[in-house]
Records
---
Amino acid sequence: MYKTFRKLWKAFWEPILRLSFFQWLLAGLMAISIWFVYFTSRKKIKNWDTFKKYRRKPAIFIFWHGRSMMLSPIVCLGGMHAYAVASRHKDGRMMAKLQYLFGLKSIYGSTSEGGISVLRQGVRMLRRGDHSMCLSPDGPGGPSLRVQDGALYFAKMTGAPIIPVCYSCSKAWFQNRWDRYLVALPFSTITCHVGEPIFIDSKVSAKEFENIRQKIENIMVKQVRDMDGEFNLFKVEQDLTASEFKKKLREEREAAKKAKKKK
């Protein structure tokens, strides 16, 4: 019964979610909600000078996939000129519309689809010298809290620095998904940490490249652990992927059904 209802529900909603008008409507409602949270919350931003220095220069701002919500109004009010990497999936296209409402342009693609195209567009844009780039190094499907190579290739090919950014908050809700997306609630204390720039030499060896990747990952994991620790928040798991997480949920539902039948 549940599977039948789920199929019917998806068959009804998926065509609607692909409609541009509906995506704009949802993006607008999401933007209003984010601004409401932002303006009702207290903000603490660490290392703002680094953000101001690179907000309109070639730089690669990276953040975990589950930590994008409250960065949007911060970069908007901070006057950032940037492109954001968005998935070509319908969810990614809706997020691109949301990013647009906060002043960010989009480059469509991901590590799993259109990766070469993203690299070419991103390198071309960074070399122009008037925009920065925003992307999640563990997206779009994980593993969570693991830095993939994409951002490092942008830095290596253009000389632009990588700047790790993270946010956390005192009143939070974690979505039950692979990236444990953090939704900030109204009347929170929101903290944002802008890391120091990390440069990658164009002639770096494969071993040094991996060492830098690991260094960036360690910095970003420490960021999120320290910031969440201040508010005693749920500890986000590492190495979860979207497919594995969905499989786990299916297995849990099946186990629950079997247990219910036995009773």
---
Amino acid sequence: MNLTTRRPLIALLMLTGLAAAMQAPALAQTFPSRTVTIVVPFPPGGGPDLFARMLAEKLAPRLGQAVIVENKPGAGALMGAGVVAKANPDGHTLLLTPNTMAISPHVLPKGAAGGIDVQKDLTPILAPGTTPMALVANPQLGVSNLAELTALARKTPGLPYGSAGNGSPMHFAGEMFKRSAGVDLTHVPYRGVGPSLVGALGGEVKLLYVGLGGALQHIKSGKLVVLAVTEKKRSALLPQSPTATEQGVANVEVNAWYGLFAPAGTPAAVISRINQEVNQMLLAPDLREKMLLTGLEPLGGSAQVLETFLREDSQRYAQIARELNIKAD
């Protein structure tokens, strides 16, 4: 290509870049111009779905547009994440997901859900809440803490424990406990939090790793007993329940955060607008109370906080998956 033919091409590229640069602020000023969709990568009725509907209800009047929730389950949250990653990056299609999305790429077959790269193909907005995880037991098991459980597990090798599925954060917690406590437990994977709770409440499995978002009502009613919280510190939702570390079992720290994401390339001004609106919503007493009643601790903050969560969880769970040979089906 000679100089004569290159000049028009260079000019075209410069004009294209200038047009894109001018389009971003204009888009931010008109956002939102239509219905905003929050994609939830899990079936209706679970914790992520309920939380998304809480946010949608409060966000709609603040944006001046309808906000709807669509469920796109599959591939450990990667199916829904892929839908959002391919959407127009204008802020009208968002993803609300727990940190399962950070784990799934390391336990699913390579290329699952089209090979989405969750750290490159999505833009963090904020982490609106967290749901602490706990090891709970059906009262029929007859244990109330980790010392009693460990003693029982050594007498009865292969004691079953349930989780929301292979490769879930709950599965990780169970395998980490087995390693740290030196006991032999048998993993029983269910297809979701709801079915795993049904199994534990009915005595099909008498041990269960679960997020408090799904189990809190059953704990308060006495149908499930908390043996340990799998956090660095006690949860404000269950201040009387000790952590695993407090009970002498270290390195069993697993929690679940919820992240709100947009497609990569969404203008910074749009990301900032949504971040500010949701952060303001999280200050409202009625929303905070509703979240706490369903086992969610309000968080919020900057997009960088969520970006750090995603990066650190991805690195951590990749290592643990290799060490413990954890895989999903």
---
Amino acid sequence: MNINKINTHHNKPIEVILRRNSNFESKHIVHAVVSDDKGRVLMSSGNKGLETFIRSSLKPFQSIPFVNSGAKEAFHINDKGIAIACASHSGTTNQAREAFKILWNSNVDIDYLKCPIPEGKISRLQNNCSGKHAAFLATCKKMNWPLESYLDVKHPLQKEIVRRVSELLLIHPDELISATDDCGAPILHLRLSQMAFLYAILGNSKNAELEQINRAIITNPNLISGEGKFDTELMLRSHRQIISKGGAEGIQCISRLREGIGLAIKVEDGSKRAKHAAALHILKQLDWITPTCIEEVEKLTIKLNRASEIQVHGELKFQET
């Protein structure tokens, strides 16, 4: 698909410019959408109809069966277990331990984990998706579903995830296209506006299951990515008013808690530094976080050498009626 074709209001995308000694070096093109919890696009920049994979920003919604199956209660798993199920963590001892606790409490052997062992590591538990996989297995154990094939797109667990996401998006499950993420789990192909819609629902506190999930995330930000990482540092410094969950290839989704507003960002070339710089630029425009918070998060998470600087140009525009 030509990502520049669908742009009904001709909003210019946000541009993230890298300069070295004040001279141009690189440019990243960024698309962004703000939606409410009714699915209405409120603001956008660039291509609001852009279709791409949501990647790890889907994790809170992949955790719904873990919550509503009763696995959490049956296996005495606390909110840290939900948080690590939603995490793209750094593989620290503490984070890996939380993933292991899910398996231990649900009496599932670690050998069932199918996420890869990260390069230079010794255990699958150190994979940044190990919490999600552990929660998948605990859910399967509770529901008496097969453990060996839990990543198969036709497995009851994966079909239930698609059903719940389609239900939230008010579409038929057959409309959702899936592929395989780097960790081996199915992942969904969505419009950027649908991602923003999901995050608006995540933060509105009207869905009991998602309320448990957003509470677990916001009370355990250190598990979601880790010290010095964007999602963790942003949530810590926003006084727990927003949920932030990134994904690979330039995906960043953010929810404003209790207001039913979601933000989704996609960088065309997949740049991580660009999505973080663009996210802070947009959050400043939306007035969701303080200037001090922005400065602190930028300093901690966007690492540049002394000769380089990042400049962000462009704004979200309100949708025409």
